[in-house]
Specification:
Strand order of the largest sheet: 2-1-6-5-4-3
Distance between the termini: 43 Å
Radius of gyration: 15 Å
Helix content: 10-25%
Order of helices and strands: HEEHEEEE
Strand content: over 45%
CATH architecture: Roll
Structural class: alpha+beta
């Protein structure tokens, strides 16, 4: 499976909350970096973070481009906090090794507080 297909598979597993399938997509030496927070996760901690994330609802992969071993994707994520739906966008970059995701970088943003069109954040 090439990296774009793996990104699509990853998105489907997360969207359907198929947490028991998630470790099978990740290399034993998997590392995920969150650029926006500076956090780094190994395979077990990243699977746990996703499976236990409070209020998670959906992840829809909206765009993906890649090669045999690298892919970049953009997804829309929804979750609930205090009964209110929250919207996020995430850019995900993966590198495969031995057919599994070995390296991942994610950049998240909250789109609930997006400034009006034609303006820039202060």
């Amino acid at each position: 499976m090439d990296a774009s297909a793996m990104m699509s598979r990853l998105a489907k597993v997360i969207d359907t909350h198929s947490w028991d399938e998630l470790p099978g997509l990740l290399h034993d030496d998997f590392v995920c970096r969150y650029v926006h927070t500076g956090e780094t996760f190994d395979r077990a901690s990243w699977v746990r973070l996703n499976a236990e994330y409070p209020g998670f609802d959906r992840l829809v992969l909206e765009d993906c481009i890649g090669t045999e071993v690298r892919a970049a994707g953009r997804a829309h994520v929804t979750g609930f906090r205090d009964g209110e739906i929250q919207h996020f966008e995430v850019a995900t970059f993966i590198t495969l090794r031995e057919g599994l995701i070995a390296d991942m970088t994610e950049v998240w943003t909250d789109v609930n507080g997006v400034p009006p069109a034609g303006t820039r954040p202060a």
